[in-house]
């Protein structure tokens, strides 16, 4: 009974606060109902999902395996180059709307945790930023995604298992082939941590990033994990459709 009262009270507070501080859909800008979070029902229904998680040898896996790095499974939640949804990514990168990203990351986590191809994931690992870049930005977006995805799998996120050891120029400045050589060898595994995880019997890891373009960055980050003997799968929130 008490829970119900609190629940009703919470709902009323949200409905009231919506009157004074209306919340808008992050994609189309329409005002949200009190029971909607971040994105309205219509935009959620229109979300350009890739369904890549259902298919072996999908475009995400091919982009990574083409770089010579073997991953068990890989998937992205939605396509990036759709008006509205690409806005979602940019808003986060430059304004840090973490609530929206946590919401989308939870969707990614839910989809993957229910997918047999991703069963048995024991740890989630974000693709790291170089410490200088992380300091400048104030956060690493992949860490936020990893934390939510880890929750869906009921496992922990390990932001320090892979480290960026060399500062690389922003990937967008390079062509496809150059991107691979720019990042190759720029990540390393924290040896002590790898040993600790293996002692705990953790072997299957899910490497997580925000946007997949050529796959060069996630392939470069996955490579040292594979060399350490981990079974690696990959998930990104969004994917660029055509290269
Ligand atoms: Zn909307």
What descriptors fit this protein?
single chain; 243 residues; alpha/beta; Rossmann fold; 2 domains; five-stranded parallel beta sheet; two-stranded antiparallel sheet; 10 helices; binds zinc ion
Walkthrough of the structure:
The chain has 243 residues and is of the alpha/beta class. It has two domains: 1-46, no CATH class; 47-239, Rossmann fold. 44% of the residues lie in helices and 15% in strands. It contains ten helices and seven strands. Helix 10 (216-227) links the parallel strand 6 and strand 7 (231-239). The longest helix is centred in the N-terminal third of the chain and has 19 residues, at 2-20. The mean pLDDT is 87. Bound molecules: zinc ion (ZN). Zinc ion (ZN) is lined by residues 25, 27-28, 30, 39-40, 42-43.
Report the count of strand segments.
7
The N- to C-terminal Cα distance equals 56 Å
Output the helix-strand order: HHHEHHEHHEEHEHEHE
Number of helices: 10
Strand content: 5-15%
C-alpha-based Rg, rounded: 19 Å
Give the averaged pLDDT, no decimals.
87
Number of domains: 2
> Spatial order of the strands in the main sheet?
1-7-6-2-3
Percentage of residues assigned to helices: 40-55%
CATH architecture of the largest domain: 3-Layer(aba) Sandwich
Global outline: globular
In short:
With 243 residues, the chain is an alpha/beta fold.
